[in-house]
Amino acid sequence: MKINFLVLFLVFGFSVRAQDISIQVLSAVEKDKVLANAEVMIQRNGESSAKRVTNSSGRATINGGFQDDSNTLLIIKKENYSSLVVKCPCNDLTYALSPVMKNLDGMRIVLNWGKYPEDLDSHLSFPGNHIYFDHKKGSSSNLDVDDTNSYGPETITINNKKFGQTYHYFVHDYSNKEDLNSSKLSASAAKVFVYVGQSLVKTYYIPKNKKGNVWNLFKINENGEIIDINTIISKTVDEVGIGGSSNDDNQEEVYVSNDDKKTALLLNKKGDLAYQDKDVDAALNFYKQAIEYNPVFGQAYGNLGLMYIKKGYKAEAIYSNRKAITYAAGNSINTTKASAYYNIAKIFENDNDFEEALNYYKLAKEFKENTVYDNAIIRVENKIRG
């Protein structure tokens, strides 16, 4: 079929250099399992442009005219799997879909990268445990898939995070493990996808033009908050698996322009109006968009958590409330944190996890005195005693 490049230029608003985008889709939790009949879509400038379905080899090719850059989104969907949304470049890469998780406080971490280096390794360390290729099973956590021949995935699943424990996730360039000044990890096009419940909640893109053989991504603190680090550092082989120094583990500084902050405020307001009109789906999407413009917008995370509760997405609601706690700011910071901890506790209580509920009700009370919190603590303590 003859392609009319002028039409494509008018529709998509960019100068077209004909290029196919070809990918393969695998399962994130079963080694080399291909996923057929997954829907693959390219989106450019917010407009859906083309769709394909993966074949029996898990492959799909979208033909012609798409720029394979950060202004292009790749979206992959399949029933019973969490949808994946990722910025390109994506041609010739492999992506892995995560089956929906059923545990309330579980998490799945999926690493993908390019052709080089051939061997990147996922690591998760927490008290008494170091999960990686040589120790694949730990306390309520395991390395589902290990890959040594480029692309990934490498997948670690936390089945049930333990309250009061700190978790640390990072990626080691095993191919260049002896070269502390290598820049090959930074050039790997690596991406890490974090899933809770049935949703992709966070995507990390590797920092570019950096030297080092370890990508230090995030920590989960004792209260369950994810602390983004997202830096590249250097470690000897013997040091891998040992917690970083305080300088290595500093929280990532996120710059948000004033224009993006204003846009986020506007989108948050639109979410409020949609919620007032009882349109939960629209409100949820507006709050998500607000966070895309301002990733440290605590109020939007709190609102998103409420929408997830309304939708029955309990794991996602816990995640969003934890983010609201992390980014709480201003004169109402203690009120915001107390309310978010209370929301988390209520979810655990309704799920009959009374020990965990009690932990979070007590945290709410630490930040603000409220008879509601006092009554909740008494109620849950009585349930524990039976």
Explain how this protein is built.
The chain is an alpha+beta fold and 386 residues long. It is built from 8 helices and 18 strands. The longest helix has 19 residues, at 258-276.
Radius of gyration: 22 Å
Strand content: 25-35%
What distance lies between the first and last C-alpha atoms, to the nearest angstrom?
72 Å
Uncertain spans: 1-16
Per DSSP, the total helix count is 8
Largest sheet: 6 strands, antiparallel
List strands and helices in order, with pairings:
Blueprint: H1 5-12, E1 21-27, E2 39-44, E3 47-53, E4 59-62, E5 72-77, E6 84-87, E7 93-97, E8 107-112, E9 120-126, E10 129-131, E11 137-138, E12 141-145, E13 154-158, E14 167-173, E15 191-196, E16 199-205, E17 214-220, E18 226-233, H2 258-276, H3 280-293, H4 298-311, H5 314-326, H6 333-350, H7 354-367, H8 371-385
Parallel strand pairs: 1-7
Antiparallel strand pairs: 1-4, 2-3, 2-5, 5-6, 8-13, 8-15, 9-10, 9-14, 11-12, 12-13, 14-17, 15-16, 17-18
Helix pairs in contact: 2-3, 2-4, 3-4, 4-5, 4-6, 5-6, 6-7, 7-8
Structure characteristics:
386 residues, alpha+beta, six-stranded antiparallel sheet, five-stranded antiparallel sheet, globular, disordered N terminus
